[in-house]
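Thread: Newbie trying to understand structure tokens

Hi all, I'm a second-year student working on a class project, and my supervisor (Dr. K.) asked me to get a predicted structure for one chain before our next meeting. I've only ever worked with sequences, so writing a 3D structure as a token string is new to me. If someone could post the tokens and maybe explain what I'm looking at, I'd be very grateful. Here's the chain:
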Amino acid sequence: MSFGEKILAYREDILKTLSELVRIRSVSAEGSEKPLQALEYMLELGKNMGFEVKNVDGQAGHIQYGNGKRICGVLTHLDVVPEGEGWSVPPFELTEKDCRLYGRGVADDKGSAVVALYCLKALKDEGVISDGSTIRLILGTNEEIGMTDAQHYFSKEAELDIGFTPDSDYGICSCEKGILQLTLSGSNKGSYIIGAKGGNAVNAVPDKAVFVVDKEKAVEKILDDKKLEAETDESGNIKVIAFGKAAHAMEPHKGENAVMNVVKYLSDVISDESMGNVFEFLRDFIADTTDGSLLGIKQSDSRSGELTVNVGVVGADIEKAYARIDIRYPVSADCENIVSKLREPAEKFGLTLDVDSNLPPLDVSEDSEIISVLKEAYCEIMGEYPDIYSTGGGTYARTMNNKGVAFGPVFRNDFSNMHRPDESLDREKFFLHAQICLEAMYRMFKG
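---
Reply by user tm_fold:
Sure, no problem. This is what the structure looks like when written as tokens:
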């Protein structure tokens, strides 16, 4: 019997705790109150289990077992993206249906946080000790909006000697693209688009967009067109409602961008009128592409793949407009050069381009200690060694100074719908992940 199998004794406790955690609407894009509530809930559980816990300024915290100098860590986050539309079950309730566990955060990343907590409990309950190591479950609250929580945590606490974040796919993710998030903004005066709202998070493909067209500029065709929903509002303006398909910003080609659908449609229907500088920029330099080709930044490398571009959020009124854009760039790319190439057309349109955040790429050697540990842990449970891969996703691994990687919880023969409606994991595979996680934590802790 592997050590990892011992986690199965906690199955019902794990599901009960996960149910309580999913109920907390910890959407970081809506403010810090609910993510903090989720953090306090987990820290209180850890304290009640007999662990040392610490809240680091309400931004992050840890639950700790052992007191050695070598610090091992499992990093998870308790914040989630907004639920969006199109769920078949209540998004903030844990629902078991067709042998799957549904709920916002089940896969990203509350399920992993709860599993790691009970892995700590299993180590403690089994009396596992280490003379030289401490192991921490580190919990963050704003991973989905920039990871400043982890940065703040490590500015106050010691760096890890070894660690992983269960916030991706199996096998082992040794390489992550850089993540550049920008805001494009400017005047909207004179535009026939007098209102717009689309998307909830810059790191997701928007599945709904609502644009308002000035009644003086609107054409009758919009109301009669069956491609979208349109209606006259109380002021006589035309409200255009379009739907797309949500997807993670690391794979924008797998979604359908509702915002860009409306921009393209309106530019075709009312082609002789001003759309406003922001929307004209989106029309001319992004359109229906996701590879940066119209911006002149298309590129790729063999290590991490192709650059991607996603228009995640837009907003407008009669005075001003803005668009938030997510760019995932290869490990070999020059971020400053990418920003420079975007500034040129932005300035031509009289727009301001602000860099909201830039998370540099991660590139961990396959010969590193952490990859060796995780390979053996995975093989112990699965009977085979895992693949080593790269991703466009962004995880806490890049905050670990090349001492950590992303590892699980989603298996390649399953799906999770992260950042989409009906986020879920297969129940059996969820507990298979739990066994791998415990085996990995055991091996890290024992050194």
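A couple of things are worth pointing out once you decode it. The two ends are 20 Å apart (CA to CA). The mean pLDDT is 94. Feel free to ask follow-ups in this thread.
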